[in-house]
Each structure stands twice: as structure tokens, then as C-alpha cells.
Give the backbone structure.
Amino acid sequence: MKLIQICRNLLWNLLLINGAAKFAVQRELMLENLPVETIEYRLSPEEQVCSCCGGNLHEMSTQVRQELKYIPAELKVVKHVQSIYSCRHCEREEIETPVVTAPMPKPVHSGSLASPSLMAHIMNQKYVDNAIIPARKAIFQIGVPLSRQTLANWMIHVPTGG
């Protein structure tokens, strides 16, 4: 049953990828010249135990989320790589296949490049420095073109945790 759900999710993601391919390519081109910091989230060996049969889990895939981290006068990409594990024994025996994901901090705004440091800077400009969005957009031409719409959406959704 779980394997069927995983397959459905993979197919759904493939359909979404085709529609979002242009966006993904544009995003990659926008970020290609920035330095990258990678943070990996893995389960400890003690946590890599199957909840169904007690066997060892193996890493079956990873999930990657990117954020723009703001360091005054510097932007860099932070890649959050989350390991996803499953049990080979349960897969072979066609028992329920538990999938375990290493814990990772939630993003500031799902699906965006916003990091806590970047949002803190944008909010500081808006509420402390009283900079309007077009002025913030001009300030942010440090290597990544962020549209006024993107900045406005981040300001709308972040206070609600969305």
C-alpha cells in the first residue's frame, strides 16, 4: 500500500516537474554564480532501524531545498539536503515498507528561496528603515534579481508562517 502511494507521489511530481521545468531552469540560472553552502540532515546509525522488522534502513533518496542566505553585502545559496531512508528487508519480503526522513528545519516560506536571515533583512528595511518595495528591489541587485512581486509575497506570507 505504501509503495503504491510512493509511486503515485513520484508520478505526480513528474507531472509537476514538466509544468515547472521553465521556472526551475530560470531559478538555477539566477543562482549559478553564487557560492553554495550545503547542510546535510541524516539519521544517526541508531535511528536507522526499521520500525516494522527491526532491520537496517538504507538511504533511498534525498530531498533538496535551497534558500538565499543574507550576510550583509553578501548572498549565498544554502542547500538543505534531507536524507530519506527505507528498509531493504521489508522491500524484499514485500512487507509494509516504512520510509523514514531525517529531521530538517522548516523553511520560512514553503517553496521559496527566503531564509530567516534574508527575511530579517527585508523586514528590517521595511519596518525600521521604512524602505518601500521598489527601493528594496534596487538594494537587492547584489547578484540575484528578486522581483517586487516576490518580495511582496514573502512579506505577506511570512508573518503567518506560510
Summary: Strands lie at 36-41, 57-71, 74-87, 99-101. The mean pLDDT is 77.
